[in-house]
Design goal:
Blueprint: E1 3-16, E2 20-27, E3 31-37, E4 55-62, E5 68-78, H1 79-83, H2 87-106, H3 110-125, H4 130-144, E6 165-167, E7 172-174, E8 184-185, H5 188-199, H6 202-206, H7 210-227, H8 233-243, H9 265-268
Parallel strand pairs: 3-5
Antiparallel strand pairs: 1-2, 1-4, 2-3, 4-5, 6-7, 6-8
Family: Belongs to the RecO family.
Keywords: DNA damage, DNA recombination, DNA repair
Function: Involved in DNA repair and RecF pathway recombination.
């Protein structure tokens, strides 16, 4: 049986039988992988704790027909321990890994892996609002997969902007001639916030007031749901908790130099 080794982040786990677990991984080189980890639910397992969501591991597997088999796992970064202690960060991280699993089906790549790692690390640092990290991750990962929103020229006819309407279905801003009925109007500050999230320009984002940033977040949510085919379960939970007041979007004004790693920062280095 062929074996391989890769650096990977654990996206999801499922119970299998009495002591086994199916682990969904996003590998740096191999993309999305589903593998069986034998006996990891036993207390005597040597690497059970290493195969939990949000853990970054150096993993060795046997390649199988439908499911691979994990034979070795070494911890590279234990983000899970920090994230589970804060409900807001944990909820946000759950959306990120669910989105990563969905996007990886369409376009696995080392850059997608880098974005996930950068987003999880930024969440553990706690120096940015989780919603900013999530919005930036969603836009940048969708862009890598070929679904970048048009923010300057018309998404339909290519007419140069600026434009005042944003169509989720058409993929970005649209001119007056191409605007379908019911399309939302967006102001320049909201579009600037979306651009900052897409590029990871935190200094520009922090200079924008809360109202246009909130509108930009709504655009990102609607846009990601459109191009991920259906609403993420973890995002439904996140939005429900926010409506109930369980999550508080406390904004910070920290600059880029104070943030450490942000989504995709390893890619820029």
């Amino acid at each position: 049986m062929p074996t391989y080794r890769d650096e990977a982040v654990v996206l999801r786990t499922q119970r299998l039988g009495e002591a086994d677990r199916i682990v969904t991984l996003l590998g740096k080189e191999r993309g999305k992988v589903r593998a069986v980890a034998r006996g990891v639910r036993r207390t005597s397992s040597k690497f059970g704790a290493r195969l939990e969501p949000f853990m970054v591991i150096d993993v060795q597997c046997y390649a199988g027909r439908s499911l691979d088999t994990v034979t070795q796992a070494v911890t590279l970064a234990a983000y899970g321990r920090d994230l589970v202690e804060d409900y807001s960060r944990y909820s946000t991280a759950s959306v990120i890994v669910e989105a990563a699993e969905r996007i990886a089906e369409a376009e696995p790549s080392p850059k997608q892996y880098t974005l996930v790692i950068g987003a999880l690390r930024a969440l553990t640092l706690g120096t940015r609002v989780p919603q900013d990290i999530l919005d930036s991750y969603l836009l940048r990962s969708l862009s890598l997969a070929g679904w970048a929103p048009a923010l300057d020229d018309c998404a339909r006819c290519g007419a140069p902007g600026p434009h005042e309407r944003f169509s989720v279905q058409l993929g970005g801003v649209v001119c007056a001639r191409c605007t379908p009925a019911g399309v939302m109007r967006v102001d320049a500050e909201t579009l600037e916030a979306v651009r900052a999230l897409l590029s990871g320009d935190w200094e520009t984002l922090d200079a924008i007031e809360a109202a246009p940033r909130a509108r930009a977040s709504g655009i990102v949510s609607a846009y990601s749901q459109q191009y991920l085919d259906k609403k993420l379960r973890s995002m439904q939970v996140l939005e429900h908790d926010r409506l109930l007041g369980r999550l508080e979007p406390a904004r910070t004004s920290a600059s880029v130099s104070e943030q450490g790693a942000e989504p995709g920062s390893e890619e820029k280095a």
